[in-house]
Write a structure and sequence with these properties.
Blueprint: E1 17-20, E2 25-29, E3 33-39, E4 45-52, H1 59-62, E5 68-69, E6 84-88, E7 97-106, E8 109-116, E9 121-130, E10 135-144, E11 150-162, E12 168-174, E13 182-187, E14 191-197, E15 209-214, E16 225-230, E17 236-242, E18 248-254, E19 261-263, E20 268-270, E21 274-279, H2 282-298, E22 311-313, H3 315-318, H4 324-334, E23 341-344, H5 374-382, E24 386-391, E25 395-396, H6 401-405, E26 425-426, H7 432-448, E27 453-456, H8 478-496, E28 501-504, H9 514-517, E29 522-524, H10 531-542, E30 550-555, H11 568-575, E31 579-583, H12 591-613, E32 615-620, E33 627-633, E34 639-646, E35 668-673, E36 683-686, H13 687-692, E37 704-712
Parallel strand pairs: 22-23, 22-31, 23-24, 24-27, 27-28, 28-29, 29-30, 30-31
Antiparallel strand pairs: 1-2, 2-3, 3-4, 4-5, 6-11, 7-8, 8-9, 9-10, 10-20, 10-21, 11-18, 11-19, 12-13, 12-15, 14-17, 15-16, 16-21, 17-18, 25-26, 32-33, 33-34, 34-37, 35-36, 35-37
The structure holds alpha-D-galactopyranose.
Alpha-D-galactopyranose is lined by residues 315, 345-346, 390, 457, 459, 505, 507-508, 524, 527.
């Protein structure tokens, strides 16, 4: 859609991409944001604005701003983090990018082609507008059309620049194994903050998501927040920089650390997708936008979203000691509770009696399963449940038949020491033969058995990243090719077995990002299942990622991580805020616990559409006080569910009434408490009352919890 710069006539505001061809000015429009780009007199593409939606004629005004270079190459006086850095075969390292051309393949997409000022090195900047979610997508393709090879040292997915302001605050997620995805906040001072992974996977340590607000002005419910998420499951980097000019920029993409990607003449490299959004509705709205976007545009079931099943998993109950008769007995107890998928975790294959052996030998252990997996699967199916299984395809134990026959398949620098972690080495899945072997192995496993759920694990970092057999100058492409091969393998297996639901896991949440989420419908959030710790981990998870894919198991007490004992109710309610699972020693449970679990699973099924496909409002944060409260509102507003947790109590203070959000003030709602903790009990109240007065809940002592189902009555 064309508009005229400075013209009093308003452009067609229904268009998502507004263009002024004479000025080479574009405005990318979502419901409530604008992103304005312009080519300056020197041919430099500049970002002029990203923030709240501008009025029609005002784009012209934005054009008076100098802005900053949208995607700088490292050449000339560029001292900020560049988008592109390269070395040519002749040693020349300068690259100066200028506007070349542009096209709009459809109403939501814009491609701006940049070219080096001298040579045929092109950078295509791909933009996509996701109007309904207030999000934009960016990715880049770098093409070498010169006659000499070049080596890319940085090819970032994009740069997000915020409007100049005095102070900005960065919110991100940080942690380690068993404590991943925890909230971290810091001011953005002059200099650079680098969030990254150098571990070959997304990592427990940091997550490729950011949110920025001005000087801490935004909170959960209000204020401007700029945020973004990178879809890449290998080494990544977000460089958050406050420049000499006072600009704040976030440059993100594949990590530049140990990165070198040669491009022969005619070759190109595509970067991962980098999504960014703006909202004036605080961190809560930023999350809701990302959740809806992920459910409807990213997940494998995006075309017709499916509810996630209730899963039983054997891990925390028996660890490696799985066998046919035990599993059948446990399945007999799981089915009447309402479990829908019965999954065997580690220990079912090869000589896998602990974590020292067997990885790589993906055939059933004959002592544990003398008749193969068939009888267990049949038993599980006859009980009305689907059968699921754990695998860790990318790994091998040196003590395995696979390693003994293919010692050359692992990632290593020949002749150098190589680190083992959990007694395992990493297979080089970038090699065609390894990738094909894995495809054949798992294609056969899934074809020979009725497997409908797969938990795909990856339990260590990549170290000593050598790729024996390829030329020295291509060695570092391993970081990229490993991830591409992983995606290819998952895509091929999903295509051959479309009915399998894949859960991704990496020692818990070590590989959580929008790249892997596009290929697996579920995430194992953390190996830490203590419900109090989980409130914080799940809070962090929910900042970028939707509750629907957040697998959360009820486990036995005392907790295996920290020895804490909490009630079954507390544990169930924490797990019911995501995708519910159980990993408990059911054969040891007393009748009353089995009855209670049955009740809670039935309740979960009643509210799961609301939890999994609804909007999440984080009413009280576990980081801020002694109470956590989360509310979910179903699409269409017919049902809402409130979960409230008291962490501990000192003195005799009551928790303040919890005020609800996202409801219609004029509607009447029926309150259905799950127990006697709601002051006033079951009754009908107005949406206005719930928002203004809120619900008083009688939670006392340590680890008390409740939930209220709220159904719209009119
Ligand atoms: C990882 C996973 C666990 C479990 C074990 C099995 O630690 O996160 O859930 O599957 O591996 O070895």
């Amino acid at each position: 859609m064309a508009m005229t710069l400075g013209s009093p006539a308003l452009p067609d505001l229904s268009a998502r991409i507004l263009e002024d061809p004479s000025e080479k000015l574009w405005a990318l429009e979502t419901r409530s944001s604008s992103y304005v780009l312009r080519v300056d007199g020197n041919g430099v593409l500049r970002n002029l604005f990203w923030g709240a939606r501008l009025g029609g004629g005002d784009y012209a005004d934005a054009a008076f701003a100098a802005g900053s270079e949208e995607y700088p190459g490292w050449g000339g006086p560029v001292f900020v983090e560049a988008g592109l850095k390269l070395t040519r075969a002749d040693g020349v390292r300068d690259v100066v990018l200028r506007y070349h051309s542009h096209r709009q393949p459809d109403p939501d997409r814009l491609v701006i082609r940049l070219k080096d000022c001298n040579e045929e090195i092109f950078v295509n900047l791909h933009y996509r507008v996701f109007e309904d979610y207030d999000l934009l997508g960016k990715r880049v393709a770098v093409e070498n059309r010169t006659s000499q090879s070049i080596t890319l040292e940085s090819a970032q997915s994009g740069v997000w620049r915020l409007p100049p302001a005095d102070s900005y605050r960065l919110t991100h997620l940080a942690g380690h194994w068993g404590a991943e995805l925890r909230l971290a906040q810091q001011p953005i001072q002059p200099g650079m903050i680098v969030l990254d992974s150098r571990r070959g996977k997304t990592s427990h340590r940091a997550n490729p998501w950011f949110a920025i607000d001005e000087g801490g002005r935004a909170d959960e419910d209000r204020g401007e927040v700029w945020f973004g998420a990178l879809a890449w499951s290998g080494n990544w980097k977000l460089a958050v920089e406050r420049t000499d000019a006072g600009d704040v920029r976030v440059v993100g993409g594949m990590n530049t650390f140990d990165f070198a990607y040669p491009l022969a003449p005619g070759e190109s490299l595509e970067t991962p997708h980098f999504y960014g959004g703006y909202t004036s509705g605080g961190f809560g709205q930023a999350s809701r936008n990302l959740h809806r976007f992920t459910r409807n545009e990213v997940l494998p079931d995006r075309a017709s979203p499916q509810l996630r099943p209730v899963v039983y998993n054997s891990w925390y109950s028996v660890y490696f000691d799985v066998n046919e008769s035990l599993l059948k007995r446990v399945a007999d107890r799981a089915a009447p509770l309402g479990v829908e998928v019965f999954a065997i975790d580690d220990g079912w294959f090869g000589e896998r009696n602990d974590d020292t052996a067997g990885l790589g030998d993906w055939h059933t252990n004959p002592e544990k399963f003398p008749n193969g997996l068939g009888p267990v699967i049949e038993h599980v199916n006859n009980l009305g449940m689907k059968f699921g299984i754990w695998i860790e395809p990318e790994m091998v134990n040196p003590d395995s038949d696979l390693y003994r026959s293919h010692p050359d398949w692992v990632i290593n620098f020949p002749g150098r020491p190589r680190s083992e972690s959990r007694n395992q080495l990493v297979l080089n899945i970038a090699r065609e033969d390894v990738k094909e072997h894995l495809f054949q192995t798992f294609d056969k496993l899934f074809s020979d058995h009725k497997i409908e759920y797969v938990k795909w694990d990856m339990n260590r970092d990549i170290t000593e990243p050598g790729w024996p057999g390829v030329a020295p100058e291509a060695q570092r492409t391993l970081w990229v090719e490993y991830v591409r091969s992983l995606y290819e393998l998952l895509d091929r297996l999903r295509e051959s077995h479309p009915d399998i639901l894949f859960e991704t896991c990496s020692g818990g949440g070590g590989r959580v990002d929008l790249g892997i989420i596009a290929r697996s419908g579920q995430i194992w959030t953390s190996d830490n299942t203590d419900p109090l710790d989980r409130l914080k981990l799940q809070h962090g998870f929910s900042l970028p990622y939707p509750p629907k894919i957040m697998m959360s198991w009820v486990t036995d007490v005392p907790d295996s991580h920290n020895g804490r004992t909490t009630s079954l109710k507390y544990r169930f309610l924490v797990s019911m805020m995501g995708s519910l699972g159980l990993s408990v020693a059911l054969e040891k449970w007393p009748e009353e616990d089995l009855d209670y679990a049955q009740e809670m699973i039935a309740l979960y099924k009643e509210i799961r559409e609301t939890v999994q496909h609804g909007d999440l409002y984080r009413l009280a944060s576990p980081w801020q006080g002694e109470t956590t409260a989360n509310q979910y509102v179903a699409e269409g507003g017919g049902q809402s569910v409130l979960f409230v947790f008291r962490h501990s109590q000192q003195f005799r203070e009551r928790i303040p009434p919890i005020r609800l959000m996202g409801l219609d003030p004029n509607a009447s709602y029926l309150l259905r408490p799950i127990d006697d903790k709601l002051s006033g009990g079951a009754r009908a109240v107005s949406g206005a009352y719930l928002a203004a007065h809120g619900l008083a809940l009688d939670l006392v002592g340590d680890f008390d919890a409740t939930a209220v189902v709220i159904d719209r009555a009119n």
